[in-house]
Amino acid sequence: PFPNSHSSVCSVYFSVRSFSILNISAWILTSGFYAVWIGCILSGNELYFTTHNVFNDPIHGSIELHPLLIKIIDTPQFQRLRFIKQLGGVYFVYPGASHNRFEHSIGVGYLAGKLAEALRSRQPELNITERDVLCVQIAGLCHDLGHGPFSHLYDGLFLPKHENGSCDMLDHLLKENNLEPVMEKYGLKPEDDIIFIKEMIETLYEYKIREDKTLFILQRSFLYEIVSNKRNGVDVDKFDYLARDSLYLGIKNTFDFHRFLQFARVCEVDGRKTICTRDIEEDNMYDLFYIRHRLHKRAYQHRVNKVIEHMIAEAFLKADGHIEIEGSGGRMFTLSTANEDMEAYTKLTDNVFEEILKSSRPELQEAREILQNIVSRKIYKFVGERKPSRIGKLLAGKKLAQPLPDEEENNLKPEDFEILVINMDYGMKDKNPVEHMHFYSKKDCCQSLQASRIRTEIFSEQLIRVFCKKIDEQSVEAARQQFEQCLRVSYVSFQCTKKKISTCLNFLQQSIHFIKW
Fold it and tell me: Of 162, 172, 293, 302, which residue is the catalytic one?
């Protein structure tokens, strides 16, 4: 009477009159990514089988997921994440960075449940329910549903915030696969809990009244810090991607998230319940933000990766309007508008790169040539970079030199250049994120403490990189000489913030004359 071992979730009922209580567990290995755990509980005359999938994850080992999470995973909307690279263009630089949003999302869902369960067992007075834990798991699992092709590359081009897309895609997923009755089967109330789940994804701290019989206000603001924590950046999303990215990039990760799970407690800070950790974990938490900065410096903001992603973005912009994706009601959408219709967006993945590359349509020629240059490694050449000082304005009295290139000699034009502004920090711009954390001591686990301030004062840095689209040696050398001349004759200090970006660009345009943004 055992269920089909290849099915994701199944239930079997049959009568057994000779036993009153029976607990059975069995492991059945299946072909593919996961195994199936079968738990059997006999109550009265009915034996009820439920299966829990166990995934073999390279970061977390064998992880068991709730049947409702498996129902969500086994949908086209979630399976789409298999075809979206976690690190976008980094795969063109680091051959090991082949992992996708799919496995990261499963890892975040798992860790979200682990942290919620740890708090629940450690502090019963918090009254964390099974319902709360399941909602937190779903939020972790679905937090990246809104990512487009090459992850953050698409976000920067066509989507203000992927979290908004994640909530829209979650609504679409639940509706298209009729999962609200399944949610009810496992004790959730869709009309309330879907709102709660989306609030955790979007990091909305203003929680709502639960529409249940007791009508109590959620006094669990700390639950909003588990998946996406805007207060200080310490969340399970970061725990998973730092560990996973480090593994596939071959970069050592010094942060141990297991210790955070071991020591996490909820304390009250300024009238609000927040997640804290032991004071002895301060160095470990600095390691969290240090490895984030290190990965940005060595991989995410790698100069070859950034120029390749810039070229992909150029190709997508040129192809926009010529790529049609069918959405709901037979309506057609482009690359830039597909995120407005979740049926169309479900079909949009990294595969659009191959679609453009292999197309023979004349209207896609410009975009196709750019992508052909990428796969042929004919990428824009690095000219030079400058690290601005931390002074927030142009120094008074400095006049900008305007050296003019000999255009007849080198044939360089403004459109032959690209300037990329690179920002790297510890997650909170120029602030120390650990100072926004709270700790507790061994003597008093209920009283929160702030971190010590004996640390470096610099938590952000910025680079301005100049690239030449012409890749012949003569043009690149001419561009580099002009860039060096510019730096010698017109040294000036500035800070590239959003407000001052135009000032920075004016400086470069005047100094180098022929470079455009």
Answer: 162
